[in-house]
Amino acid sequence: MGKDAFIFIASSYHYIPPTNTIYELIDMGEFKKIKVPEEGEFIAFKDGDMEVPDKPIVAFIEGDGIGPEVVSAARIVADTAVEVAYGGSRKIVWWEIYAGKKAMEIYGVPLPEDTINAMKLAKVTLKGPLETPIASGYRSLNVALRQTLDLYSNIRPVKYIKGMVAPSRYADKIDFVIFRENTEDVYAGYEWKAGSDEARKIIEFLHREFGIELSLDTGIGLKPISESRTKRHVRRAIKYAIKNKRRVVTLMHKGNIMKYTEGAFMNWGYEVAIEEFRDYIVTEKELAEKYGGEVPEGKILVNDRVADNMFQQIITRPWDYDVIVTPNLNGDYISDAASALIGGIGVAPALNVGDLYAFAEPVHGTAPKYAGKNMANPTATILATAMLIEHLGWSEASNLIWKGVESAIESGKYTYDIARHIEGASYLGTREFAEAVCEAIKSLK
Ligand code: NAP
After folding, report:
1. How far is the CA of 165 from the CAs of 41, 146, 157, 170, 325, in angstroms?
2. Atom of ligand 1 nearest to the CA of 376
3. Closest Cα to atom 42, ligand 1: which residue?
4. Could you please report the per-residue DSSP string of 221-250?
5. In Å, how far are 17, 29, 359, 415 from 51, measured between CA atoms?
6. Handedness of CA 305, 380, 116, 145 (dihedral sign)
7. Whose CB among 17, 32, 103, 378 lies 3.0–4.6 Å from 98's, allowing a Cys bridge?
């Protein structure tokens, strides 16, 4: 395939087949402002499975605000964990690519084609937080990235770390994994400003076709939720629950009010559970009807909760919840709230994953007031990197990172956001906290 073919692929954000041949397709010169690292190899796919070389090239985007500091801290910790786990036989080769303000400076646009193509080529990326203007300006780059790469599940573990000061008195019982759908719902980006031609046309159409009366100064947004996209997301969550021996999968929705979107999400979720995982699951209805309320040994309970109830349930009875599967907006809200219960979003990681590509990121944003001050907590990004490494199949290194973070925090190593809640506690800078985690990792081996 020649140069023209590549340009076609690069200029459309469409599917690139996940084979080794992509690498051959891409002439290094085709990237406008970045160069493929000389060391390392790209992750490939063979028969649908990811093949990870010993020196995989992993892309990273520093991001805006505190992004450069927390991403740099996370890379240091990741390198230490991989070195300690594999004694030099494996290594991540980091490849910097650009989005957000740095991309504006280099390319004049916040999300260049180079970046999307590099993320496809590398398959996995570590991404710092990116700023999104509120109520005007460009759409969220994070949302654009998740949609363009079809990263349909956003996986957010929320687990108490010993030593953290947490507002919940049941914090030590919190061990959730939230699966937030990433491509649909009100995040799909179909919005029209009040007074615009488009909004007026839709209002007129709704009036003409359905007799709906909306005032002409109404802003309009669409909330698409489809069967196929819901099912692939719930399928991933149940597979995760089976693989990781989790006890419960809860479908969180507001289906009593939004019947054909969130209510359908619940129905389709149960359909996947019953039709595809019959031997592994029992539903809450079946539990009452057939099993006297006791989950049979080895089965996963699949239940559902209305969103407002779910919020109070994670506060009052967190031990009843485990894997929580949500549409896009509910997932955004519940993951920040759940993280707050265990001590804040400074420690909450996420992995965005589809069938081909993935990127890891902290749940938090750019926290601009801490930017450049070496004060931000890098834990969320460090743990996101652990998720990325787990995704590569390097569980030993990933476990070392989780244990290293736990050990550092348990021994009283805090960043400012945690220390301020503990009387008399001193705090470390972002960089120094990462070094403390590295020391803890080295002492674990
Ligand atoms: P935010 O950046 O998450 O910060 C909100 C507050 O959370 C901070 O003021 C700080 O609380 C605390 N915080 C967050 N991360 C922290 C860390 N690593 N260490 C210590 N404290 C931390 O939320 P925001 O202010 O709403 O959003 C700022 C920008 O980030 C926006 O442009 C938003 O769109 C963007 N954003 C991006 C992503 C992403 O890239 N995935 C996600 C969310 C938001 P205190 O003030 O109490 O110290």
Report:
1. 42, 32, 18, 12, 27
2. 19
3. 365
4. E-----HHHHHHHHHHHHHHHHHTT-SEEE
5. 14, 25, 17, 37
6. positive
7. 103
Alpha carbons 384 and 63: distance in angstroms, whole number? 14
In angstroms, how far is the first alpha carbon of the chain from the final one?
A: 48
Is the full-model pTM beyond 0.85? yes
The protein residue whose alpha carbon is closest to atom 39 in ligand 1 is 129
pLDDT value at 277 more than 60: yes
Question: In the predicted model, is pLDDT for residue 147 greater than 90?
Answer: no
If you measure from the C-alpha of residue 62 to the centroid of ligand 1, how many angstroms do you get, rounded to a whole number?
Answer: 15
Residue of 156, 345, 351, 364 best suited for mutating to test ligand 1, as the one with most atoms within 8 Å of CB = 364
| DSSP-assigned beta bridge partners for residue 50 | 45
What is the pLDDT averaged over residues 409-415? 93
Which amino acid is located at 278 in the chain?
R
With the most atoms of ligand 1 within 8 angstroms of its CB, the residue from 139, 345, 418 to mutate is 345
pLDDT band for position 300 (cuts 50, 70, 90): very high
Lowest-pLDDT range of 196-200, 338-342, 380-384: 338-342
DSSP 3-state percent helix, strand, coil across the chain (nearest 5)? 45, 15, 40
Cβ of residue 182 lying under 6 Å from some atom of ligand 1: no
CB-count burial class (<10 Å; 0-12, 13-18, 19+) for 150: middle
For residue 69, give both structure tokens: 């500091």
How would residue 304 be classed by pLDDT, with cut points 50, 70 and 90? very high
Which two tokens mark 233?
A: 């997301």
Q: 18-42: string of b/e by CB count within 10 Å (b at 16+)?
A: beeebeebbeeeebeebebbeebbb
Measured CA angle at 406 (ends 401, 408), to 5 deg = 95
Q: Torsions phi, psi of 389, nearest 5?
A: -70, -35
Positions annotated as catalytic residues are 187, 254, 308, 332
Do residues 412 and 378 touch, judged by C-beta distance below 8 A? no
Residue nearest to atom 34 of ligand 1 (CA): 132
Kindly report, residue by residue over 257-268, the tens digit of the pLDDT. 999 999 999 999
